[in-house]
UniProtKB/TrEMBL annotation:
Record GO biological process: malate metabolic process; tricarboxylic acid cycle
CDD domains: MDH_glyoxysomal_mitochondrial (cd01337)
Molecular-function GO term, any one: L-malate dehydrogenase (NAD+) activity
Family: Belongs to the LDH/MDH superfamily. MDH type 1 family.
Cellular component, GO, one term: cytosol
Residue positions of the active site: 183
PROSITE patterns from the UniProt entry: MDH
Name the UniProt record assigns to this protein: Malate dehydrogenase
Keyword Thylakoid: no
Positions of NAD(+) binding: 8-14, 37, 98, 121-123, 236
This protein's UniProt keywords: NAD, Oxidoreductase, Tricarboxylic acid cycle
Domain of life: Eukaryota
Organism of origin: Trametes cubensis
Subunit: Homodimer.
Amino acid sequence: MVKAVVLGAAGGIGQPLSLLLKTNPLVTEHTQLSLYDIVNTPGVAADLSHISTPAKVTGYLPPDDGLKKALTGAEVVIIPAGVPRKPGMTRDDLFKINAGIVRDLAVGIATTAPKAFVLVISNPVNSTVPIVAEVFKKHGVFDPKRIFGVTTLDVVRASTFVSEILGDLSLASKITVPVVGGHSGVTIVPLLSQSSHPLPSGFAQEEVDKLTNRIQFGGDEVVKAKDGAGSATLSMAYAGAEFAYKVIRAAKGEKGIVAPTFVNLAADKEGGDALKKEIGRDLEYFSAPVELGPEGVVKINSLGKISEYESTLIKNAVPELATNIEKGVSFIEPSK
Ligand code: NAI
């Protein structure tokens, strides 16, 4: 039995994500799905509960200790709560509102379900993950192996865009491209040289540059197309569910599951230290391919062989990442 909780479940991501969790045959038999939001969760839960799959769905609102009830017994908590971007905004622009939302939800998790795996979708991920970690530290329940920034959408976009270039969309779900660094603009570093399906021979550096830029700023395409109505929701729900399934399957004992995710590098000291050497800076967090297991992070993999171009991308990502991380940490620190 797995109790999965979605915080922000009535939103643009929360609803389709909850639908995917309710309907996935891999996990639904064993899943109790608990939905929390400041609005509309009774309706979303009632709607989903009519779907003929075994997962039991319950909705909660803030009154009467709703957050606590939603989180009691949780093993996996997914957080897509918070405001999304509008055209012209960066993810960092969301910090003002989302930092406080994520902090308050993290306090709820730390006090009610401190052993749960926490999957943070709310942006800016580079800062909200440190916020969750600092709250957990303050409550004496911090385990770096159990807190993840969800960067899967970058990986999903990379696979899709590469399959488009190879002229075969049916390859999209088979292609793997590690995407490392962080989750915003230049901190998103696709390692195209390590694509499971190599780019066409003769693919010019200029085209690599264009593809890299499209992966880094793929979110902007959606924000622009939605024209003020928000950012990626459906592709994000797909990506979030994919990552959650991996965490759940690994928790149940399946071996060898690896996925890029933004983690505290103390989660695997040896792997984390090796990675810090590779990136040339003592960062506390980084998104890297991580092997998952019953207790969360088992191993942080090294970047391996990367091109000179990718090495430059990482150099460019590091200063912004460091700033984003520090912003999240210091949001909680003063009240220590
Ligand atoms: P949305 O506005 O449609 O939904 C957000 C939901 O959060 C709303 O239902 C709202 O009522 C709820 N909420 C607000 N404060 C809350 C609180 N204190 N407790 C519980 N729920 C609360 O936004 P959308 O499009 O679903 O995006 C959510 C977040 O996900 C945004 O921060 C967005 O930037 C981020 N995002 C992250 C991506 C990633 O790759 N990690 C990709 C796309 C979006």
